[in-house]
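Question (not urgent): is this output format expected?
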Amino acid sequence: MEIKKIATNRRARHEYFIEETFETGIVLTGTEVKSLRRGKGNLNDSYAQIKAGEVILYNCHISPYDFGNRYNHDPLRPRKLLMHKAEIRRLMGKIKEKGFTLVPLVMYFDRNNRVKIELALARGKKLYDKREDLAKRDAQREMARALKQKADFRS
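Got this back:
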């Protein structure tokens, strides 16, 4: 059985330099898991912070479960991420000293059908860095297009 992606934060790689990634678990209620199985998760504009020795995920939107009753969940509630204490301490040091931030990249079901989040230790990009990345991507696309035309011409 392969990994099933639920949500991807596509803007994160555009907005940040990704230094390191971590796989974390997440504490969810029953209706949140049911909603995620239907693909109703969104990581856009979400971020994580360390408070009182715990990693908390903010602004992660999980839509209310359609068939839920009065026990349905709040879509934007803060959710605890599960990491080892040693990893959390190491992250705390890096975030405080170097100006890093924690950004979720992907939410997915692992092989055991548990919801996992790929969390990145990231540093923000400046505007000129973003332009440079766009220019590199355009150049790669042009080279690929030229090589394809050359290969088609020879055939």
